[in-house]
Write a structure and sequence with these properties.
- It is built from four helices and three strands.
- The model has no long low-confidence stretch (mean pLDDT 86).
- By secondary structure, it is of the alpha/beta class.
- The chain is globular and about 30 Å long.
- It has a single domain, classed as Rossmann fold (3-Layer(aba) Sandwich), CATH 3.40.50.10730.
Length: 82
């Protein structure tokens, strides 16, 4: 995760999820203010995205985990919301 992606989400007013496998790197970006939230659990992440969509909350979320898990979770999430 670089700082540009989550900051762009903040500027655009959307929900951004940026995955990072290195906890140290993710915490550094969070501590520096590049992302507004840091989530470690995929289920909590999906629930948070749902909440933000329903309430129209713009945020940037750093997900500490593998992007593949995030993609698979998104596929499952997409199937349940249809």
């Amino acid at each position: 995760m670089s700082g540009a992606q989550p900051k762009a989400c903040q500027l655009l007013g959307c929900i951004g999820v940026i995955a990072e496998v290195s906890e140290e790197a993710a915490k550094k970006r969070y501590d520096q203010g590049w992302c507004e939230e840091l989530i470690y659990d995929l289920n909590k992440l999906i629930n948070r995205v749902r909440e933000c969509r329903e309430k129209k909350i713009a945020t940037s979320i750093g997900y500490v985990g593998n992007i593949v898990d995030l993609w698979l979770g998104n596929l499952i999430f997409s199937n349940y919301r249809n």
